Amino acid sequence: AVEVKIKNIHFHCIKFLYFLAVIVYIGKKHKYFFRSWPMSKIVTMIPVRMASSRLPNKPLIDINGKTLIRRVYENVKKTIEGDIYVAAGDQVILDECAKFGAKALLTDPSLPSGTDRIAAALKQIDPDGSKYDIVVNFQGDGLNVDPAINNRLIEMVERTGCDIATCGMVFKSKEDAENPTNVKIVMGLREGEREGRCLYFTRAVAPYTRNPEKCPNQDLYHHIGIYVYKASSLAKIVGLPVGVLEARESLEQLRALENGMTIRAMLIDRLKLIEEAPADINTPEELSEALKYIK
After folding, report:
1. Which pLDDT tens digit goes with each residue over 4-42?
2. What are the helix (H) ranges across the chain?
3. Strand pairing of 134-137 and 221-230?
4. Are 194 and 153 in contact (CB under 8 A)?
5. Which residues contact 282 (CB under 8 A, 6 or more apart)?
6. How many beta carbons lie within 10 A of that of residue 159, not counting itself?
7. Which of 33, 88, 153, 176 makes an SS bond possible with 165, Cβ 3.0 to 4.6 Å?
8. Which residues of 208-221 are buried (b: 16+ CB within 10 A; e: fewer)?
């Protein structure tokens, strides 16, 4: 009888270990398995158009055997869960997407921003706003941007209920912080904190530290223009008029803040898949550098 009990215990232990192994395997294969239930319905939109003053026909540029838009799409597809669409401003982009099996939607080429483009594309596939909960905006020239960052932003939207999630990095030099092309996030993080509510975005150097000896954290945060939206919030933003501060700073995200919406940001240490290559491609020089590293 004792021998039978030992065999039964052994059998149930094996079953438990097998079940545990299956759970771990599924968790690794499906990144959102352990998220709170029910899971959000997520769509990633990649806004892209042919018009580019510095790099004509940019989406169709050959990057060592594959077009730019194809490389961006493939990076997103293997990293972010949910549906993926290319929000295209031109028919030639749709034609290119068809060659490698990407779903693409044609939008008005005259739309003023990528945000408007992804909202217009979303309206085509989800006209009543019931199909998707979260929208990822992944830039069509973000060839070397790590799409895994967006998974962390998706989690932040789900966890906090914020309207928009974005990210930033600590400035490493005074010169970079003083450059008005580098947008600053103003948020009140205590020393050691890595996430918070965005109070403002600005091209000025902010916030100012009046009493350095009383302020342990004097970091300045460089805004990285990666966005994840609640689907309802995206629809709201594009329906609002241009804000006063938005027009003054030429920063679209201020429209949301001016209308009482919540933006949260998390600090990241790494933006790129390949550290030596540029994060995105906007100039012939960046294209030349990308070709050296992205194979």
Report:
1. 556 666 666 677 767 666 554 544 444 444 444 458 999
2. 2-29, 68-77, 91-99, 114-125, 148-160, 174-178, 231-238, 244-249, 254-258, 284-293
3. antiparallel
4. no
5. 52, 54, 55, 141
6. 13
7. 153
8. eeeeeeeeeeeebb
Cβ neighbours of 69 (radius 10 Å): 26
Residues forming a β-bridge with 66: 63
DSSP 8-class letter at 275: T
Contact by Cβ (8 Å): 112, 95: no
48 vs 96: CA distance, rounded Å: 12
First to last CA, the chain: 65
Distance CA 254, CA 261 (A): 10
DSSP letter for each residue of 36-103: PSSPPPEEEEEEE-S--SSSTTGGG-EETTEEHHHHHHHHHHTTS-SEEEEEESSHHHHHHHHHTT--
Q: Write the DSSP symbol of residue 169.
A: E
Total-model pTM: 0.86
User: What's the rounded Cα separation, in Å, for the pair 160 and 205?
Assistant: 28
DSSP 8-state symbol, 128: T
The token pair at 2 is 């004792």
Write down the pLDDT at residue 54: 81
208 pLDDT higher than 50: yes
